[in-house]
Write a structure and sequence with these properties.
single chain, two-stranded parallel ribbon, 10 helices
Length: 191
């Protein structure tokens, strides 16, 4: 992962303020090394799946509701309260799960540093996973590429197509709010 991030920086990547990923130890270490001071968000979807993997099927719905109280909270303070409550409620039946929440629960709360309108889309790696799924779908049709360059051309064309779609939809409105969750200066003055 260090090589990937080093290559991205050499190609001009700068100004990174927020990274969302799963809890892969090498990836997290590389993020800390190459993006010092950045907000790191552990993917909430992966975290919830990991937690539910330690819960009996009959109890998953109840535990999922506790987790949703954390991930769907309106503020960081409310999310932390829900996290503490979930740890207390799960400690008797699922001490291992309560321990996971107690030890790693803060890792899924960095998203609350973002503007409220960005949180739903930036709390998981779903966007990247969807992009990778589309690359697999399109390249699987070809099956065998004549050479590496043809694979790169197809992938680049697909990336440009998806970028155009995202630009049209305005996936995130970067002008409306800044990273701390407050409205942009111009809107503050107008209010």
């Amino acid at each position: 992962w260090s090589e990937v991030f080093k290559d991205l920086a050499e190609r001009g990547l700068s100004g990174v303020r927020y990274v969302v990923s799963d809890d892969h130890k090498g990836l997290v270490a590389a993020i800390k090394r190459h993006f010092q001071g950045v907000l790191w968000q552990r993917c909430q979807v992966h975290f919830v799946r990991n937690v539910l993997g330690h819960v009996r099927k009959g109890d998953r719905k109840r535990v999922l509701e506790l987790l949703r109280g954390i991930t769907n909270a309106r503020s960081l303070e409310t999310a932390r309260e829900a996290l503490r409550g979930a740890v207390k409620r799960l400690n008797e039946d699922y001490p291992q799960v309560a321990g996971m929440l107690d030890e790693h629960g803060e890792e899924i709360l960095a998203v609350y540093q973002l503007p409220e309108g960005h949180r739903k889309r930036m709390r998981s790696t779903n966007m990247v996973e969807r992009l990778n799924q589309e690359f697999r779908r399109r390249t699987r049709v070809v099956r065998i590429f004549p050479d590496e360059a043809s694979c790169i051309r197809l992938s680049a064309a697909l990336a440009m197509e998806i970028n155009e779609e995202w630009m049209e939809r305005r996936y995130l409105d970067m002008e409306a709010e800044d990273l701390s969750g407050t409205e942009a200066a111009g809107k503050r003055e107008a209010a």
